[in-house]
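Field reference: sequence -> structure
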Amino acid sequence: MGSLVFHGCSDVTNTTKEELTEEEVLVLEGVLGNALSEEDEGLLSGMMDMTGRFGTNGLNHRYRRSGAFEGSPFGDFTREYDPETGIHSISFTRDVDRPQWSVSLSALMEYQFTDPDGAFLEFPYADSTFIQTIQFNGTRTGQTERPNRSSSFERVANWTLSDIQSVDGVMTLEGSQTGTGSMMVSRPAGGEFSREYTTQLDLVDVTLQEATEDEDRLPYLVSGVIEYQTTITKTVNGEETVNEYSGTIELSENGEALVRFFGLKRTLRLNLANGSRVDSGS
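Structure field:
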């Protein structure tokens, strides 16, 4: 359910919304689309990097990246290993500039690979069949820009990928992703407005299929349910209006995310590659 909290000089009033305004839909499309999409360095991009292999100058991804990333190499790539904790740390930058989309990213990521007995793996790819679990912590800071929205963000993921050697090729992903940032949104009829936001995505029942010759695009190989909470703040003349939303996000191996809002009939269907709205829901 969406709730409104008005912060004035002295009074705080709580009300309950029954439907979303079109302006709210635009904001939620942007905030949740960015939090999820591969091209906006959201959840899908984090999954891509979590499952990638360390190379000399970057990551070699297990799944095929969106074509929009072609010709955009990693920058300032570093890698370290701590044998006491078993943590592999990498950092890098990633910049893409296209006519309809651009992104600038700085990332710091930590991986801990363990075998079926729980032992750390210093050389996880010497024999990848030893990898049973990956503990992953990743922080991404950056900016994205599209014709209808621009955003600055920080996203932090804390995930566990298990069942990596499962017979059926289905891996289990658990954990959460949090985010904070600001967004500028353009209205279809003209004009634009800005919002501050926070998000939390809790992975309830998410699985990843192994890439195959027939399908190697991650948006078509991820399924499950995510519970989300997002807070969006609007400030006018020093007065804040805070909108809080929560609900579920369903992933069904079809390249899309179906967003539901607790207490509301309205839904959003978002493209997992670029975060755009597939349809306006009902």
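Note: DSSP finds two helices and 16 strands in the chain.
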